[in-house]
Write a structure and sequence with these properties.
With 316 residues, the protein is an alpha/beta fold. It has 2 domains: 182 residues, Protein-Tyrosine Phosphatase, Chain A, CATH 3.90.190.10; 117 residues, Four Helix Bundle (Hemerythrin (Met), subunit A). The chain contains 14 helices and 6 strands. Strands 1-2-3-6-4-5 form a 6-stranded mixed sheet, with helices on both faces. A hairpin with a 2-residue loop joins strand 1 and strand 2. The protein is globular and about 50 Å long.
Amino acid sequence: MGVLLLVLLLGAGALMPPPASSAMPPAVDAVKPVDFVGLHNVVAFHEGFYSGSAPDSPEAFASLADLGVRTVISVDGAVPDVIAARAGGMRYVHLPIGYNGFDETRRAELVRAVRDLPRPIYIHCHHGKHRSAGAAATIAVSLGWLTNDAAIERMKVSGTAAGYTGLWSCAAKAAPMMAAAIDAARADFPEVTKPESMIAAMVAIDEALDRIKLVERNDWKVPADHPDLAPAADAGKLADLLRLATDDAHITALDDLARSDFRALLADGVLKAGALEAMLSSSDGNSMSDAERARLKAALAAVGANCKACHVKYRD
C-alpha cells in the first residue's frame, strides 16, 4: 500500500531510474550556473530537474543525452525542435508562459508534467535565466521539493532579473499542491503549442512598446499609478513575439525574396529587443546615470525604427 501511494503521489515516471550518463549534472547546491555544449545557464532545482537555456544546436541535444535527460519542457514561446529531441530519445513538452508569470492552470499543467514524466527533466526558456527559472522554482515548491525561500535562492543562482516581478511572485506565493489538484490538470502534454497569429502578435507588440514608453516618459522609473509595469519583461516579450512571427502563415505565403527580407527584419528586431531587455534588466531607474538613460533611449529608438522599417515594407 505504501508503494502504491508513493506512485500515486509522485508519478510512475519519477520512480524510473535515469539511464547512465557521461556528463556530470549540476549540483543542487551549486552557487553558479553550469554551461554545456549548446546549453547555457544550467541550474539544478532538484535532483534530476534542471533549468537552462534553449538547446541551440544538434550538439545541445547530445549534451542533454549525456546528462541522461529524458523529458524536455519548454516554457518559451518559440516552437521547439521536437524532431531533434525524438532523435535523442527524449520527449518534448511545450507549455509556454509569459515574462509576467503564469496562472494556476498553467502551474498545475507544469507540475503534473514534472511529477508524471520520466526524469531527469530539463526545463528551458530562451536564455534560461528568467521564465524557466521562475517555472522551475514554482514547480519545486508545488511538489514539496523546496521551500519558497530556497526556490527563490535558486532563481537568484539562475540570474533572474529583479524586474520580472510576476515570476518572482509565482515562486513566492506557491504552496505544495495536493495530488488531487495535480491530477485535475491536463495530461496530454503537448509537444507543440501553436503561437499567436501575426495579427494578435502585432497587437501584443504595440501594447508592450506602449508600456515601455510609459516608463521612458517617467525617467525610466515605473510610475506610481502603474506599479504593475515591468519594462524588462515587456522587452523580453517583444523579442519572443518577433521570433514567433518568423513562421507565421502571412510570411510563409510570401515569395522567396520577400520572405527572406521579412525574416531578416524580424531577426534584426529580435536582436534589438534583446539588447533593450538586457539593459532594462540590469538598470535601476532610481539610480541611473545620464549615460544609461541615453543608452536606453537609443535602444528603444532602435526597436521602434525596426518596427517602422517593417511596417513601411509590409503593412503601411
